[in-house]
Specification:
Structural class: alpha+beta
Shape: globular
CATH class: Alpha Beta
Number of strands: 4
CATH superfamily: Ribosomal protein S10
Strand content: 25-35%
Order of helices and strands: HEHEEHE
Distance between the termini: 21 Å
Radius of gyration: 14 Å
Number of helices: 3
CATH topology: Alpha-Beta Plaits
Helix content: 25-40%
Strand order of the largest sheet: 2-3-1-4
CATH architecture: 2-Layer Sandwich
Number of domains: 1
């Protein structure tokens, strides 16, 4: 772990992105995963997130559970990722949802 990133789940995930070659000082597309109890609650959560983050894009998939994928273009500083996770969690929680991680694919 390097000194720039805390040794917690978010810091470790960002370090893995960095180790895989992602430049954390540049704008990239981040995918935040939100576990939701049903498709209908997922749609409600997406509508609320759109109010807070109008430039985000979304997808809902059903595998074992429903997951909303929220794609946001950002410079992935630790503080900004934690702030985004907190915002998404606060929006999802009243509908039985919760943030379930993040990643960045193809950056």
């Amino acid at each position: 772990m390097n000194k720039e990133l805390p040794n917690d789940d978010t810091g470790n995930a960002l370090q893995r992105l960095k180790d895989d070659g992602t430049d954390l000082t540049k704008m990239i597309e981040m995918d935040f995963f939100i576990s939701v109890p049903s498709e209908s609650f997922g749609i409600l959560i997406i509508e609320k997130i759109k109010e807070a983050l109008p430039n985000a894009t979304f997808d809902i998939e059903e595998e074992e559970d429903f997951t909303c994928y929220c794609k946001i273009s950002m410079i992935p500083s630790y503080d900004d990722v934690v702030e985004t996770e907190s915002l998404l969690n606060a929006i999802a929680k009243p509908y039985g949802g919760y943030i379930d991680g993040f990643g960045s694919f193809g950056n």
